Amino acid sequence: MGKEQDLLQAVKTGDLPSTQKLLAKLKASRNKLLGSTKRLNVNYQDGDGFSALHHAALTGTTDLLSVLLEAQATVDIKDRNGMRPLHYAAWQGKADSVLMLLRAGAGVNGVSQDGHIPLHLAAQYGHYDVSEMLLQHQSNPCLINKTKKTPLDLACEFGRVKVAQLLLSSNMVVALLEGNSKEPADSGFNTPLHLASRNGHKDIIRLLLKAGIDINRATKAGTALHEAALYGKTEVVRQLLEAGIDVNIRNTYKQTALDMVNQFTTSHASKDIKQLLRDATGVLQVRALKDYWNIHDPTALNIRAGDVIMVVDTVCRYVWFSAVPCS
């Protein structure tokens, strides 16, 4: 095994004394005449593109990071996937390592081949301190990865409540809530509300609604209600309905959320969801009927307490004490 492989192995196993010994030889060789000895390449990369600095960032050992950076390791060196050491430190949630790399000049918005910046990884894995540190160093929370997801999308998808709250406190995410972060005509990609609803994250949904996200924003597949209903998230369906989501919105296939549940699901949860959606649809039908009579015959609504309004979903859609003719 050569010196470079020895260095990689020492860092990978967290062997600080061996790492220091190898790097000391590198420092000594710099004081000799060029060509007098084979110098250790501190930036040597293995078959996956991993350098010693990648390994140090991944293990979160700041002592190893420090000696490697002092030995002039390239702070933004990329592996085969375009991942820099800062990506790995953020992924692991190593705040001390992240800070050390940032102070050494690591690019806070460096992009991997998958389009991830370090903040994507910190947000997805719920690392609050690291996410906060990256934002303080001007990380852009609006950048999208190859799947058109922002750090906020990932925090909402994986239920990282504290990180989602942190990102929502940034002035830069206003555009995300308004749906302006992606191509205007591109309705194939989900909003943070869709992702949270699909995965049943009620606390995240509460945060998003409080922050002012458009509850009725639709993608090709429909609204967040479509997502929650299709994935069997009964309590989220209830939450969205109580928040006033429009139960009658149809997706690009002309399906309401109830249509989708009827067509694609047979679970026990779907039975409860169907009833919730039917009840909500019935309430809207009653309201529509009331609005109709308020306009055309206001006296028809002078009913006594205890009277009942029935909504019958048949060919004769509405029945009002059998006194409303079908038209």
List the helices and strands in order: HHHHHHHHHHHHHHHHHEE
Give the number of helices. 17
Low-confidence stretches: 303-327
The strand order across the widest sheet is 1-2
**Separation, N- and C-terminal Cα atoms:** 88 Å
Report the β-strand fraction as a percent range: under 5%
Percent of residues in helical segments? 40-55%
| Strand segment count | 2
Shape: elongated
Radius of gyration, whole Å: 29 Å
Average the pLDDT over all residues and give the rounded result: 85
Question: What structural category characterises the helix and strand content?
Answer: mainly alpha
The major pleated sheet works out as: 2 strands, antiparallel
Written overview of the protein:
- This is CASKIN2.
- InterPro entries: ANKS1/Caskin (IPR033635), Ankyrin_rpt (IPR002110), Ankyrin_rpt-contain_sf (IPR036770), SH3-like_dom_sf (IPR036028).
- It comes from Oncorhynchus tshawytscha.
- Keywords: ANK repeat, Repeat.
- The chain has 327 residues and is mostly helical.
- It is 50% helix and 1% strand.
- The chain has a two-stranded antiparallel ribbon.
- α12 packs parallel to α14.
- The protein is elongated, with a radius of gyration of 29 Å.
- It starts with a helix and ends in an 8-residue tail after the last strand.
Protein topology:
Layout (H helix, E strand, L loop, with lengths): L2 H10 L3 H15 L21 H8 L2 H9 L14 H8 L2 H9 L14 H7 L3 H9 L14 H7 L3 H8 L5 H4 L14 H7 L3 H10 L12 H7 L3 H9 L14 H8 L3 H29 L13 E2 L6 E2 L8
Antiparallel strand pairs: 1-2
